[in-house]
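Troubleshooting log. The previous structure file for this entry was overwritten by mistake, so regenerating from the original sequence record. Sequence copied from the archived sheet and checked twice against the printout by T.R.
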Amino acid sequence: MTESTLMKSLGDAESCDAHSYGVSVTLGNISISVRSLLPDVVRDFSELYSGRTCSAPRCGATIRMEVGRSRRSLLGSRRYAICGDGERIFTDRRRLELLPYLEWAINRRVIARQSAYLQIHAATMAHGRCGFVFAGNSGTGKSTLAAGLLSRKWRYFCDEFALIDQHAVRIHPFPKALCVKAGSFEVVRRLDLPLQTHPFWIKAFKGPVGYIDPNAASAEVADLPVQVRFVLFPKYVSGGATRLFPVSRGRAVFALRQHTFNADVLGPRTLSILSRMVRGADCFGLEYGRLEDACNILETLL
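Regenerated output below.
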């Protein structure tokens, strides 16, 4: 897409001046607006969400992101800042680092703005009416597992968040692009999923990263909430055997509390919501060395 085509398709609704570019996406119930003087930033972001972009936000409660110039480094190269809803989140970013940090900054604004949900650091998928929550720290294999299930036509909710309704205790969709670390690139390519990469897409301690647009993967992207039926704590073990083992509901609640982003905001309600969530769910630990084996064993649960 050329710069002139991009400007024509996006129009002036998101532009702060004649030289800026903007686009909006709606993911589940969350609208995100991105504006920048750099057409490459807006173009890359748009390509992550094919079929989800629009020229203006679809709802009033929009997360508004801006990418602008910051300062020059000691060697004279330009640095950039990322702001969300008027708050400066990242500074001193190199130009080609901007997409991963923009995605990261959006996550931070979701945590700050979406306190109506219990927010768990988890990948979320569904098969039929069964919602799955895969909770854990970064590096445990949640996103790779979500990619494997995506390739099997499971319904995709998110690879970063479980957004849990506090009252109905259901998972709400927030279908962001899947973020995949370099160590999983080859595995994802074997799944025949559309992995977008760039040599300078680097995300802090994760190193080089790529992205999967779930819409481009010909997968079903969730648009309605689903009840939690299974809670799992995955852990990738290189060369290890695949093992599924039960976890008590009490232990699951304790572990989920450790992975809840907004527990301090919700206070005592956190444990109450988590307890109600696991009451109707089966809870397991999952260790796996081969993605195919992990996906197979999860499908036996159904």
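The mean pLDDT is 87. Archived copy saved in two places this time.
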